[in-house]
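STRUCTURE REQUEST FORM
Protein name: DNA-binding transcriptional LysR family regulator
Source organism: Limimaricola variabilis
Requested output: structure tokens
Priority: standard
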Amino acid sequence: MLNALWLESFATLVETGHFTRAAERLNMTQPGVSQHLRKLETQVGRPLLSRQGKGFTLTPAGEAVLALARNRRDEERQLREAIRSDDPEAGEVSVACSGSFAMALQPAFWPVLREAPRLRLRLEAVPQRGVIDGVAEARFDLGIVDHAPSDPRLATERIGREALCLLLPAGMEDTRFAALEALGFIAHPDGWLYAEELFALNFPGEFRGAEHLAVRAFVNQIGQIPAPVADGVGYTVLPRSGFEAFADRDRLKVAELAHPRHRDLYLLQRRGREMPARAVRIAELVKKVAARLAES
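Status: completed
Returned output:
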């Protein structure tokens, strides 16, 4: 890498056309400017100026180095402007969370993107381990998980909680465990874990563990998990966000159970990182969605 200070001295010398004037502009001595020129020529391995009496002209190498020096100036100016502006309506923000929470976030995000055409959002549904590692390794600006990780690279903030919902077909009234088993479980990647947490609380005498549930179907696409329930094919267990994001939720029923079960929501960001204004804006929006789910 060519020395940035020597490049600036060289560019100023060419622009002023005189060693003394260059020294005055740079707040240096004239020998100091000459020394920077000699060091730069040594680093390049070619003479940069062709002297003609008290004046000089650029050699071909000097023209190339001058172009580089001016490009460096432009890049630094653009960087300083970007740092100063820190525009909350420009740039990219990356967010990672569960599939169900991502579906709850989307309707809140789109109006913001319409209002801010230069703002870009990358929203990814990832398993919780991937959320934690992704934020810790700075691949995501923000992450949402259901527990506070112990990773020292992360700063965590509890932003709310959401209920685990037992979802039934809209017309189903019988919420006994035997009735659920007769209908059948619509399984999904997190379904057994959710069922374990909810059923152990509410059906302790009958529930023998999630691995013994009568599975009717398995659905891997988060947005489609409630569909067979809406069609009367089975029941499932999802966080509140998965229920609210389903377009035909009027065809579903959230069963009222004696012992509700909630999962906390934590917002993650990399510890010690000063978040840009655009990420702070999106973080506030995430908190509002989490607060709404807690009230549901």
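Reviewer notes: The chain has three domains: 4-85, 91-157+269-295, 163-262. The two ends are 58 Å apart (CA to CA).
Form closed.
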